[in-house]
Amino acid sequence: MDMSEREVTVPQSQSQPQSPLATALPSNLTGTQSQSHASRRQLKRNSAACERCRRRKQKCDGKLPSCGPCLLVQEKCVPSDRLLIRVDPNCQCDVLKERVRDLESQLQVLRAERHGDSGSPGPSNHFYQEYNSGPPRIVDNRDITYHGRILRPTFAESHGGSMLRPPLRGSPWQLWAGDPDSRASPRRTTDFTADLALTPDIDALVEVFFTNRWPQLPLLHKPTFIQDDLLPLTRGEPGQLLSSFRVNMVLAIASAETDSKDNPQHQHHVHRTFFEAAIKDLSTVMSANDLDCIQCLLLLCVYGTNEPQLVNIWYTLGLALRIGLGMDLHQEETSSTGQSLLSQEMARRLFWCTYTLDRSMSIAMGRPLGINDSEITVPVPQQLTDKQLCSGEAVLNPIHSPRDMSTFLHVIKLRQINAAIYMSLHAASTSASNECGSLDVLRERHYTELNTWLVTTPRYGPASGVAMLQTPEWFQIAYHYAVLSLYRPSRVFPVTNLASLRLCADSAISLISCYNTLYAKNRISYTFVALNSLFMAAVMMLYALRSSPTIRSELSKGVARANIDMCQRLLRGISDGRSVGERCAVVVGRLGEATIDVFDREEAVNDGIDTEFMSWFGLKLQRIHDSEIGQGVTPSINIPWNDLFIEGFNGFDVGSYSYLDLIV
């Protein structure tokens, strides 16, 4: 027994394989050994014993935070170092990750430089966050189709638009209402998503927008737009919730801005495609934060100046203005010192962009202004570039640059003068006045302001690559159009004098000549405001010639005919083949033929003007409700003018020349 016990206990005390001697043992001893091995196999050997169990050379169950033996005696259990994850001293993961982040940042800067901004790409957070009490709460409504008034035409048909008689509406209504080229195409049943990564010349289109349209309406901050909106979409990333809308609207405006004379149908299809892609997010725009919503609505208005029948500019602009007034953007106290330079300046830019568009549209459409100048206390934006806004340093530029606010600030000043002229002479509440002395003083004051404005217009060097809206010719056009508004017949001055008529004729011919210069340089950018201003200048030139034999003698018949032909050519040219341009040309042609015939007539006039014609034509608006209107005998020479006023443009439809036979 002693021998057997020693032979059996030997393998138990040593961790060695079973001895061959065990095979010769009795079966009962073998069974006892197998049971002992079975019980050992149920235990898991823990090589990572705690420090106390290792010192005492006892078994450790390895439980955490305290093993069983240490917990039993209430001793502190220190886990073995084998349970700890040691950091490889040769590992450089953190360094490499930091290097990757640095390289990605440099790549974004290089991409921004490629788009024309060598400075930093701007902050990642939008400026609107400082104007809202909390983070933006924008609801993704891209699956909801917008069917509101924004997408209705600006100049609706008579059954759905203004309730005034057609002759009493402004010329834009009679030019664009019912225009087949401006009607909105039926909405596509299939979804369209502009693949910006595959869009050719996307960089060129973005540059067209920021070169041609941005100087007068700086409603986007270019570095922020490129970093937060454009680059993510071109990389195939989702970007922000409104990134798709902003990018597609910028591309739509730029596509409509580019020259479409070579292939107008293709060009119209391109910009309308971008527009249709953008309005898919219009429901999301309407639920966005206030400043973001204003920014997107103004983009729609800018596009509407090219396509007034696809966007209801009057309604959309009024909505943007009301949102801004609700935020008190028109008050100086809103611009607190706690805001960053970018937030403060962009809020001011958005308000003054809304202001200039409101003045332009209200005057063009003959409607009330959205806000009085006396209610505005917020300063105009500083003359800074977008790059300076990123740096946070408000250092004014001593020299005008096409990339700063110099053009925009000058446009703001012009719109203020335009509004003052409109309210004093052309507003619906004004009426004919006998106080000619005070009105002459008012005219002289505004005329002096316009001359000062023209003298102080910014001048850019030839290497600047300025757009049409920054050329000396455009500033001349804006000046002469304001002079026409100041001295043409109005509600206050239905009958004017020879000096005013001569000034109107000179400004009208100068405006037409400036458009001709830009057209010869292929610098014309089509908008309905530009076409309307050219048309009104042509009508005013013909009106001055018809009203004054003195002006006719100064101009001569041959020069007058050449000016009429030039007007017709320009109206057809800058409209890019649209039927509205042809309609304007037909009206000018018919009025021109009637005016040319007057050169051969001898008329008895007083003070060099035809007072009878001016009283007959200028006072019709004052007597529009007279029951005898239209019953009197109209001289045959004045039939085109009578038709223009009584019938509107309905008697001047393209292809309808029945009235021409009645002209003597």
From TrEMBL:
Q: Which locations, inside or outside the cell, does it occupy?
A: Nucleus
Q: Which residues form the Zn(2)-C6 fungal-type domain?
A: 49-78
For this UniProt record, the keywords arranged alphabetically read as follows: DNA-binding, Metal-binding, Nucleus, Transcription, Transcription regulation, Zinc
Provide the primary localization: nucleus
Molecular function terms, GO-annotated: DNA-binding transcription factor activity, RNA polymerase II-specific; sequence-specific DNA binding; zinc ion binding
Start and end residues of each stretch annotated as Disordered: 1-43, 113-132
Q: Does the keyword Methyltransferase apply?
A: no
What the entry lists under InterPro entries is as follows: XnlR_reg_dom (IPR007219), Yeast_MetPath_Reg (IPR052202), Zn2-C6_fun-type_DNA-bd_sf (IPR036864), Zn2Cys6_DnaBD (IPR001138)
Record's compositionally biased regions (Low complexity): 11-20
- Its GO biological process terms? DNA-templated transcription; positive regulation of transcription by RNA polymerase II
Keyword Zinc in record: yes
The domain of life is: Eukaryota
Q: Where is the composition biased (Polar residues)?
A: 25-37, 121-132
Name under which the protein is recorded: Related to STB5-SIN3 binding protein
Origin species: Fusarium mangiferae
